[in-house]
Structure prediction request, 551 residues.
Amino acid sequence: MHAKDILIGALETILARDNLEIPQKHVVNPPKDTRFGDLSTNVAMLLAKQTGKNPRALAKELAEALVRECPDIASAEAAGPGFCNVTFRPGYWQDIVKRIEKAGPDFGHSSKGADSSVLVEYVSANPTGPLHVGHGRGAAYGDSVARILRSQGWKVGTEYYLNDAGLQMRTLGLSILLRARELAGQETDFPKDCYQGDYIVDLAREITTLVPDLLEKPEEEARAHCQEFGMVEILGGIKSDLAKFRCEHQLFFSEKSLVDSGAVSRAFAALDKAGHTFYKDGAYWFRTTAFGDDRDRVLRKSDGSLTYFATDIAYHHDKFERGYDWLVDVWGADHHGYIPRMRAAIEAMGRNADKFDVALIQLVNLLRDNNQVSMSTRAGTFVTLEDVVNEVGVDAARFMFLSRKSDSPLDFDLELAKERSMENPVYYVQYAHARIQALMRRAKERGIELADFSSPEILARLDTPEDQALLCQIALYEEMLANAARDLAPHYVSNYLRELAALLHSYYAKHQIILPEDQQKTLARLALSRAVGQVINNGLFLLGVDAPEQM
Prediction:
């Protein structure tokens, strides 16, 4: 159990004797100055009025009780207007090394989400062109969220929603057909709303080879041929790119299958039963104004065709019908206004809207030589995910994508991502891991037994401020990971790893690890180093980034 939970548990026990509870707005955090202890809480200040006591006097009472009754706490004292500063015994922090050694790759894991399932749907780009760098950010995010949730006990499904119907696909088919005509020397008017990239020309060249009589077929038949061929080829490329990028999708869910399987009808029946639909001007409507929307929304047009909103409602209804307890969607930032509408639909169908979360992925500003690279799928000037991965590597790309909050714009510096220097954040973290592994190899070469060197007597030699800083940081890993799962925030992990790597590099520069004249301190520092390496390894895995043995 980490320190914050121990302190809160002790406070709850002490306060319960007087029929008191910890106030909801209480804070338990490390003080800014480590001289004032390991943790500080404002509980006494919040309870002063209720108890009729001076807040500082109440803080003193709590401090005395904590020291008396909690064996992990070495000292506690009242401070300022009523804070209670707590210092844990050195052995508590040193024990974290043994816990990490025992848990190994499972350190930081919990069973909080046990017996519950979550479906993470991410990327879901229309198969009208290759994945670009913006899709890469969403891909890294969605895969990392799935890994983090699994670490906290959730049963996680991963899914790609395949838009294989609708106007975009017809436009793809038309774009390929028109380019095929151009290649055959026919004069062609190519509309601006068609897809312009060179990949369309390549697809046109390929299909005319496979279907020599393509241009002799009736217009609609030829376009349908082009649409199906283009979708299959592009989707194959998307799947290949995602696999190389270490992203898992257990299912590619077809939009077309929603209609074919009756899922749309079942979703409409759920809305009808709840009394939230009506007919007007020959169209079928969903009364979203009853849920705070600014206007009602059409689900089926008067010509019988379905809107995108209709199939999206059916898709989310189907997700719940498949037994998932929680839905997490990863969308582009331009879909922000769509969230309340979808939440309204979920609530209208009798589901808990709180079990639906959307993570928005902001744009990536790709920089090359300090100049922004413009990207447009239709104009064909985008940089593909494959291009970026080939240039900087999977590790650098994923770490960079996950270095900031997903709904904040991200500047991706290609030159920095390629640098093998401490300025490159992924290199900085990976080098910390490789440095520890090199240290372990040197120790083994010198005959130092590495099997088990974490006895309390040995770990007691971790007595410098730098030792304490590293111990406290690795102890925070569990809480950080729980928070990352709660907030769907992989950037918590990347930021944590950078801080841990900084402490390790500073420690390495200040302290000699292998001390020929002091075997116990050598063993203690090796134990601490190995624990740090394990935590870095665990964190990098959750980001989908390798932890190299040497660099």
About this structure: Residues 180 and 204 are 5 Å apart (CA to CA). The two ends are 35 Å apart (CA to CA).
